[in-house]
Structure formats: C-alpha cells, structure tokens
Design brief:
Order of helices and strands: HEEEEEE
Strand content: 15-25%
Structural class: alpha+beta
Strand order of the largest sheet: 2-1-6
Number of strands: 6
Length: 101
Amino acid sequence: MKRIPTLAQLQAQCDLWNMAYPVGTSVEYHPVIGEPAHRIRKTRTAAQVLSGHTPVVWLDGESGCVALEACIPAKPTATGNDPKQAPVSGDAESPKQKGKS
C-alpha cells in the first residue's frame, strides 16, 4: 500500500524545488502526466503545498496551479537561452504569444 506523504514531506519537496529552481525558471509542463505533449512555461511563484496534499507551482499562461510532478525544468537551447514559451500543437495562441518569434 502506498503511504500518504506527511505535510512535512510535502513541504520538503517544495523547499528542494525552490532552492533548485527560482521563480522565473522555464519548465516543461505536462497537462496530462505521462503523456508526451507538453508546454514550456515560466514559474511565477515559488512552490507551495496546496491544501495540505499536493506540492504545486503557478505558471505564466496557466489559469490555475500545476502539480510539481507535472513539471520538469526545461533544457536551455543550444545558445544557452531559456526556451520560449510555446503552446502545445493544437493549442490556440494566447494574445501575448501572437507576433512573437
């Protein structure tokens, strides 16, 4: 049987994330965990425990919080720059993304 993590364990996950990935870090966000489709977004908050049960972070361009387990740090491009925020194929572009190259 899978053990439910304690609040202290969940907070420790957030603390480790926050030490490694400051606000503004580009991440690959997987809307469906385990599926290959993903979006590149930047974090807009530090990670925190949501309602005592899930480590989450808020991302630019997303209306709600996202579980840390659905995020992995995005790899920098060959030029060393952060990847651009881009929609998943089939997603509608947001007004902020239109016109950007």
